[in-house]
Amino acid sequence: MLKQVFVKGFLSAGLMIGLGFLTAPVKAQSAPSQTPAPSQTSPTPSQTSPAPASTPAEVSQTEVQQFANTIEQFQTIQSGAQQQASQILQDEQMSWDRFNQILQAQQNPQSQPTPEVSSEEKQSFDRAVTKLSEVQQNMRSQMNQAIVSQGLEPARFAEILAAVQQDTNLRQQVEQELQN
Predict the structure, then answer these.
(1) What is the number of helices (H) and of strands (E) in the chain?
(2) Considering only CA atoms, which of 139, 146, 163, 158 is closest in space to residue 29?
(3) Are 156 and 63 in contact (CB under 8 A)?
């Protein structure tokens, strides 16, 4: 049941915490010579090379299994990261609500949290942000390792993710694999 809820949430949303890192950095790593210099303009769609030959129909059953196994590992990684994050805030004696109020106030100076942030609370918040950033970096690294450990390259994982989001039949195959 938990797997099913996770699968539906993951596949319908299309993104998990930390997955955003997969697409941009991977593209930059996989094709550094194609990155235009700052003085160059971006090519128009007609100037770009054709899309990769990979289509949703070209995802093999082995890749479906690898993808599903990776998602299961992501769930474990994400759960551990959530526990670490909660522990960090508990150690800093700060609730998630208060943390989010302060964060929102930093992102939008016009919205001030109530009550105002004391200097001690600001220091606690700053420590928590630093530690949470480390947890996020560790989670990203673990997710990348999970992808590779299943025999996929991060770029291929991202392609399969995009295909799963667009192809109902492929999504059903992944859901079936996760339920087994």
Answers:
(1) 7, 0
(2) 158
(3) yes
